[in-house]
Specification:
Layout: H1 2-21, H2 31-41, H3 49-75, H4 80-101, H5 104-118
Helix pairs in contact: 2-3, 3-4
Length: about 130
């Protein structure tokens, strides 16, 4: 009886370890969550009311366009390079619009501090290629 309990405990520990080793993958944020998150991150820019409205509209358009484009590229079976090129095209267009409404200091802060903080961070020890799925 004791052997069976020990074996059951070892099997349970092995199962739990195997499931946790898969990493879970996490969930993507919805476009609405990404918009809210981005706008919250922009608080240090201290935008006036008119610029904030314009900025929020640019960010909302960018995230909606980006989400739509990535969904279309995934459905078409496009490769990573095509997705990265499209994302760069959309972010360059967004940056041109933001540069037109921000002061030089605000735009510099956007590029140097805020935009990098919006990129998803891999957990420590995660493989660079996104795993072997």
């Amino acid at each position: 009886m004791k052997k069976q309990l020990v074996l059951a405990a070892i099997a349970a520990m092995f199962s739990i370890t195997a499931v946790n080793a898969q990493g879970g993958g996490g969930q993507r944020m919805t476009p609405e969550e990404r918009i809210k998150f981005t706008i919250e991150k922009m608080a240090p820019l201290n935008l006036d009311a008119a610029t904030k409205v314009k900025s929020d509209a640019i960010i909302t358009d960018y995230i909606n366009e980006s989400t739509k484009a990535m969904d279309e590229l995934r459905a078409a079976g496009s490769d990573r390079d095509a997705m990265m090129a499209k994302r760069k095209e959309l972010s360059d267009a967004r940056d041109v619009k933001l540069k037109a409404i921000y002061t030089e200091a605000q735009y510099k802060q956007w590029k140097d501090e805020i935009e990098p903080s919006l990129r998803p961070q891999r957990p420590a020890g995660a493989p660079a290629g996104g795993g072997g799925k």
